[in-house]
Amino acid sequence: MSEALADAVQPAVPDQSTCPAPRVIGMIGGKWKLLILQILIFQGTKRFGELRKSIDGITQTMLTNQLRALEADGLVTRKVYAEVPPRVEYSASADGLALAPVFTSMHDWWVNRSAGS
Question: Least enclosed by CB within 10 Å: which of 21, 52, 99, 100?
Fold first, then answer.
């Protein structure tokens, strides 16, 4: 294969000094964050207990930690209501909702991949 053709087939390698992939992976990577985001993006606002029931196998401590990390990264918002007992709701922020096309692309990739099998 000619060098020009090989370059056309290979995707361009992003400049590692400016590539956001490591930061993005840190924000959404791991076993639980994508599941949490998927629920909040496509199902809307959820209370803590609803989220926990929706994610098989996650512990209360892990869900708390993951929600805090997502909130710190600006992907999830937390609203506390002044009630007894306190009611806390979690929603995808505008930045979190902007990830919807990523989930849609992953879904499409899976469907296309599965169709070829």
Answer: 21
**Phi, psi (rounded to 5 degrees) for 45:** -60, 140
Q: Using CA atoms, how far apart are residues 107 and 31, in angstroms rounded to an integer?
A: 17
Please tell me the distance from the alpha carbon of residue 111 to that of residue 95, in angstroms, as a whole number: 26
75 burial class (0-12, 13-18, 19+ CB within 10 angstroms)?
buried
Tokens of 17: 């000094």
pLDDT in tens, 35-94: 999 999 999 999 999 999 999 999 999 999 999 999 999 999 999 999 898 899 999 999
What pairs with residue 77 in β-bridges? 91
| Structural contact between residues 73 and 52, judged by C-beta atoms closer than 8 angstroms | no
**pLDDT score for 27:** 84
Rounded Cα distance between 103 and 34, Å, is 9
